[in-house]
From TrEMBL:
Keywords: Cytoplasm, Initiation factor, Protein biosynthesis. The gene is infC. SUPFAM superfamilies: Translation initiation factor IF3, C-terminal domain, Translation initiation factor IF3, N-terminal domain. Residues 12-81 form the Translation initiation factor 3 N-terminal domain. IF-3 binds to the 30S ribosomal subunit and shifts the equilibrium between 70S ribosomes and their 50S and 30S subunits in favor of the free subunits, thus enhancing the availability of 30S subunits on which protein synthesis initiation begins. Its main location: cytoplasm. This is Translation initiation factor IF-3. It is found in: Cytoplasm. It comes from the Bacteria. The keyword Cytoplasm applies. Residues 88-172 form the Translation initiation factor 3 C-terminal domain. GO terms for molecular function: translation initiation factor activity. Belongs to the IF-3 family. Monomer.
Length: 173
């Protein structure tokens, strides 16, 4: 059995080094199994290239087409796919156990805008000094945030303590 090509992209013309191939002509019709030399002769007589479509098949499937046009179409498809792709970022909002009401509302507004934009939000609550003794304040703060954004977000990671920091990750619904 022939191994897959080692270079980038499919093999073309003389790079196809198998004794027999299954040929598809330029109209897309199956011509059957023939020698690689005959397939190359047919491709060159029509002024086109012989391109290996399925290298792992036995015998490999080749097609007569314009290789430059084929590469252009592939690049176009790749660029189109890249355009449609949405990159999800993780935005971080930092709060403290003693965050005041107005600051809390401001941070909540930021969380809502991040979720509306389709980004994930990581809420980190940092304890300093003796605040570690009152972790229940941090838990209350995280619970309040969770309740406030319940309709817009689903909790991917419930609040958990890591060293002196409590983390919670939310994703938009």
């Amino acid at each position: 059995m022939q191994s897959a090509p080692t270079r980038e992209g499919p093999r073309v013309n003389e790079e196809i080094r198998v004794p027999q191939v299954r040929l598809i002509d330029e109209e897309g019709e199956m011509q059957g199994i023939m020698s690689t030399r005959d397939a190359l002769t047919r491709a060159f007589s029509s002024g086109l290239d012989l391109l290996e479509i399925s290298p792992t098949a036995v015998p490999p499937v080749v097609k007569i087409l314009d290789y430059g046009k084929f590469k252009y179409e592939q690049q176009k498809k790749k660029n189109e796919a890249r355009k449609k792709q949405k990159v999800i970022e993780i935005k971080e909002v930092k709060v403290r156990p003693g965050t005041g009401e107005h600051d809390f509302q401001t941070k909540l507004k930021a969380i809502h805008s991040f979720l509306d934009a389709g980004d994930k939000v990581k809420v980190s609550l940092r304890f300093k000094g003796r605040e570690m003794a009152h972790q229940e304040l941090g838990i209350k703060m995280m619970e309040r945030i969770r309740i406030e954004v319940e309709e817009k977000a689903k909790i991917e990671q419930m609040p958990r303590l890591e060293n002196r920091q409590m983390l919670m990750v939310m994703a938009p619904r």
